[in-house]
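Much of our argument rests on the idea that a fold can be written as discrete symbols. Part of our work consisted of pairing the sequence of a single chain with a tokenised description of its backbone. No coordinates are needed to read the tokens, only the vocabulary itself. The record that follows shows the chain in one-letter code together with its fold in token form.
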Amino acid sequence: MSWSFDDLTIQHQLNIGLGVVPFFGLGPARVRGAAFIEGPMNVGTPFPLCFGAVNIGPLINPDAPTPFIPGGFCYGPPSNPFSLAVVGSTAVLGNLETAGDVTVGGNLKVQGLVLGSCGGHLLQIKKNFDIPHPSREGWRLRHTCPEGPSNDVYIRGRITNQKEINLPSYWKDFVDVRTITVNLTPIGAQQHVIIEGIDENKIYLQSNEGIPIDCFYHIFAERKDGEKLISEYPGESPADYPGDNSGYSIAGYNYDVR
């Protein structure tokens, strides 16, 4: 037997199915406005299969107002871009699977591993960028970020007819001066260039018998804001890192298993 109502108002509880939710209460102790639906339930666009207790698809109700089009109707994407909108904090107490992208507008905090479906091994995930090739039509160019056991920054360039390399003004407050290393590559001829000295502002060079200096330089130093990186540690996931994990972005903790 079924009934059809124009409007239905329930002043206390809605219970559909045989289940009982103890903390909703029964009889005089019932919670006003509470609802229990045994499920499965479909909201929005009908699902071809039942994936869960609640299946939510894009909005298909043409009477629903939209905040995106003044005076218009919210009838599915793109005017209604979300199937589910949540204001406030949200907790997922089990596993979370997504078949699409995840966009994060704020900080991403992960307490365990993020697992992908393609398998892999330690350090398989690289930090890349991929762009259309600048000089070969129909090709692409992919570069990857360097990786190392310390939190380093670097500068590079060329020095000509000078004996001093000026370091960035902020380096004295940004890096540990004791960790500075310098690589020099003479240009045109051997000049026997050496590092005469290093301070927080400059690198001082010296060449054999005063030969004019012309060389490339590559200078590394370790950041001093925050603790030193612990490159090896016992554990099953990045959550076991013995240092301050809040100081690092671990790309979703997906270095161990992808």
Summary: Residues 152-222 form one domain. Confidence is low (pLDDT under 50) at residues 117-124, 254-258. The chain is about 0% helix and 25% strand. The longest strand covers residues 152-160.
